[in-house]
Amino acid sequence: METTTQAWRHPGSLTPVQWDDHSPASELSIFTDGSKINGQVGAAFCVFNPRRTEEHQYRLSNHSSVFQAETVAIQRALEWKMEHHPQVQCHIYSDSMSVLMSLQNHQIKNSSIQKTRDLLDSTLSLHWVKAHIGVADNEAADVAAKSAAGKEDIDVHLDIPESTIKRAVKNSLLKRWQQNLEERDEEDKARHTKNIFTQVSRSRCISNVYDIQVATNHGLCPFYLRKFNLRACSCRFGENLEDDIMHYVTTCHLLGHLRTHINRRCTPFQILTSHPLREEMRRILRYVFAHERDIFQND
Q1: Total number of domains constituting the chain
Q2: 204 and 144 within one domain
Q3: pLDDT tens track for 138-160
Q4: Strand 90-94 vs strand 53-60: parallel, antiparallel, or unpaired?
């Protein structure tokens, strides 16, 4: 896994790193970029000065992140500048604000960022340039980075970044979660929810008490109360033996005056994923809670 810095440095011993979004005229300018395309990763920098233009390309390990590629591009550009033009004022451009902000951090944990920061001196100025807005020099660096990703041989071998490991673990857990869902038989207690949400999701979080009732079919309704021997009751209108949550949300005539958008064809998934339907459902179930005695009858 990608290494972290071992030694802590007092913030007072660090030279502040500044960057801006200006594009000043300069004798020496270097544009950097990193790219990941078709599972391959590349980094590059393009040198622009009055005498000549040149580019340097590096293919990285396939498991490398774009953040790593952007960092390598800046790092190699700084090393090149120190070797060939150590005394010349140079402007370094990057479209990666995340890398620039990491260089600015006083508590750096990433060893690559720390190494890059250690290369900075008073002859260097960092600038952020917005990507893909037609800045010719930055577009040239972008093309070079994509070309670097397509190289046959890997030039820079990097350790797997922590973000990649976390993503792989999360994807593996999601895959296993989905398999568990699909392997459940039809008698499973969660089949109602399974029929609504056929795909698992880490971003789906249902916390509203009424939404949960629709998603689970558990709540204040005769079907649920009878099933768990909590109360012997039924719908006062007597129209449906399956007097469950969806009966009151979509069908029951006692609540017809509350429905504007919902009808008997609406599915739980449609209701939970549509804001107007969801708000109407909540209003209906609030009414059921408030007027339970008028809607349920004891058997």
Answers
A1: 2
A2: no
A3: 999 999 999 999 999 999 998 88
A4: unpaired
